[in-house]
Design a protein that fits this description.
single chain, 3-stranded antiparallel sheet, alpha/beta
Length: 155
Amino acid sequence: MHMVIILDSSAIFSMENLPEEECVCPPGVIDELRRYKDPRLDLWGDMLRTSDCTGTSLKKVEDEAKKSGDLGRLSPVDMTVIALGLDLNGIVYSDDFSIQNVCARMGIEYKAVGTKGIKKVEKWNYQCIGCKKWYKERMDECPICGSPMRSHRKR
């Protein structure tokens, strides 16, 4: 069976060589590698295919990340990596725990590259460090007192 691997920036940073299988990443990953001037981009350029995810898959990822509390922990590029995994029915290679968490919740196969990966699926809540009020979604600051927020695993 032909398996497609979807690569996140963190996976590429951890790899010595590209896997034998077909490797795809969203354009945002290539942009991140260029921004960090990663030399592997020149080496792997033509072996690394780019593809955009569908809007439908991106919406599903956003909805699931909202439910798990990972939405505030995922970048827009992270979300396209997961959505591409959904679109291509591939394996997402990433060392990002929030990407792994959302993949696990959505039934998308994933593999950690430079880390051990997540041990269990988590749900996140956010607490204001000032007034201590709890929120389900991440915000930059508390709407009540304006203090920064801190993420906590839901118990």
